[in-house]
Amino acid sequence: MPTKEQVLEVLATVDDPEIDKPITELGMVEEVVIEGSRVGVKIKLTVPGCPLKDRITRDVTNAVRQLPGVDDVQVAFGSMNDDERSQLSANLRAERGAANPQMDIAFASADSPTKVIAVASGKGGVGKSSVTVNLAVALAQQGHSVGVLDADIWGYSIPRMLGVSGKPVAFEGMVMPLQAHGCKVISIGFFTDPDRSVIWRGPMLHRALQQFLGDVHWGELDFLLCDLPPGTGDIAISLAQMLPNADMVVVTTPQQAAQKVALRAGKATEQTGMKVAGVIENMATFTCPDCGSTHDVFGSGGGQELADALDTDLLGRIPIDPRLREGGDAGLPLVLSNPDVPASIAVKQVAEQIASRKRSIIGRSLPLSVS
Ligand SMILES: Nc1ncnc2c1ncn2[C@@H]1O[C@H](COP(=O)(O)OP(=O)(O)OP(=O)(O)O)[C@@H](O)[C@H]1O
């Protein structure tokens, strides 16, 4: 017969799927009852009717079943009371080091381990959102913890492209992001009626972004990818103000006209203080699947020209691939559905470059001297 300590020990290996921390640490294990080979566990959910009940039941059952002498595991649920929820929320905020819980953005602190990457473009339709989701999933596949913030408030498309929908759970002013293909995701699309347009202007956009950055429990992220709206509008300025350490990656098509507009988006960083970390050329050469001939449908060379003009690197050239669009429409990014095609390989190489740059600054001593 297992002991209560043994049961608690295995329960410590079960994470709450939304908060990403052991249920024992979060105070979610209310009761453990052992009767011979039968073990009953009562879990206190953060909010009643939590949509992830089934997942928690499965994870708790699998963990406790591993113990020798256990034949049957019963999982029951209750929910935290207001005091317990407030305490949990205060603990989570304190952990993030938020001095002013309502306004503080942990990513903004100089010692934040998270690299924030704003994905920008000059004009719409160049594939900025497609690049964001594929890059996010590629980084997650490479073992990084990744968040995706859909900052394209008016024209959000990240939920569809990642195949995720639903209402995020909120408690005590904290919002739990949804999960898709190994990434945590927040989009205005989770909070609005899909058939109604969002017509917010500057201050509302600023506030929405502030909440997405400050009130969402992102946990410990290696990367937060922010899909910006096209152009150089209010959101890009707000993001730069809130996250002065963020880097910008500019997506362009190879054609001159797109590259010129993208240059303006990239140059705007000179005024906002963000750094341009590189350029990604999307919709580069198309290779005919039947005859193998190649076509520069949108011209060529724009990505390199833009990188030169912004004095940064061309991180990659992603070819046109109709399966990338199909994957976006189906909620299954190309790097997952067709990981070995040239467009996926190009995205994965960009992800590796971005990750290796992050590694290169970790542990590097700062150029400070004592005088
Ligand atoms: N490399 C590619 N090959 C084929 N289709 C692509 C590629 N990149 C993007 N697309 C398709 O082009 C269309 C526009 O892409 P996407 O929505 O990602 O652009 P965007 O720049 O984010 O647009 P907006 O700023 O207007 O939201 C989509 O239908 C997408 O599936």
Secondary structure layout:
Blueprint: H1 4-11, E1 29-35, E2 38-45, H2 53-65, E3 72-79, H3 82-95, E4 115-121, H4 128-141, E5 146-150, H5 158-162, E6 170-171, E7 174-175, E8 178-180, E9 183-187, H6 202-214, E10 223-227, H7 234-242, E11 247-252, H8 256-267, H9 269-272, E12 275-284, E13 286-287, E14 294-295, H10 302-309, E15 314-319, H11 322-330, H12 334-337, H13 342-361
Parallel strand pairs: 2-3, 4-10, 4-11, 5-9, 5-10, 11-12, 12-15
Antiparallel strand pairs: 1-2, 6-7, 8-9, 13-14
Helix pairs in contact: 4-13, 6-7, 8-10
This protein binds adenosine-5'-triphosphate (ATP).
Explain this structure to me?
Strand 1 and strand 2 (38-45) form a beta hairpin. The relative contact order is 0.12. The protein contains 13 helices and 15 strands. It folds into two domains: 4-88, Fe-S cluster assembly (FSCA) (GMP Synthetase, Chain A, domain 3), CATH 3.30.300.130; 111-361, P-loop containing nucleotide triphosphate hydrolases (Rossmann fold). The protein has helices at residues 4-11, 53-65, 82-95, 128-141, 158-162, 202-214, 234-242, 256-267, 269-272, 302-309, 322-330, 334-337, 342-361, and strands spanning 29-35, 38-45, 72-79, 115-121, 146-150, 170-171, 174-175, 178-180, 183-187, 223-227, 247-252, 275-284, 286-287, 294-295, 314-319. The chain is elongated and about 75 Å long. The strands form four sheets. Strands 8-9-5-10-4-11-12-15 form an eight-stranded mixed β-sheet, sandwiched between helices. The protein has a three-stranded mixed β-sheet with strand order 1-2-3, with helices on one face. It is of the alpha/beta class. Helix 4 crosses helix 13 (342-361), helix 6 (202-214) packs parallel to helix 7 and helix 8 (256-267) packs parallel to helix 10. 36% of the residues lie in helices and 21% in strands.
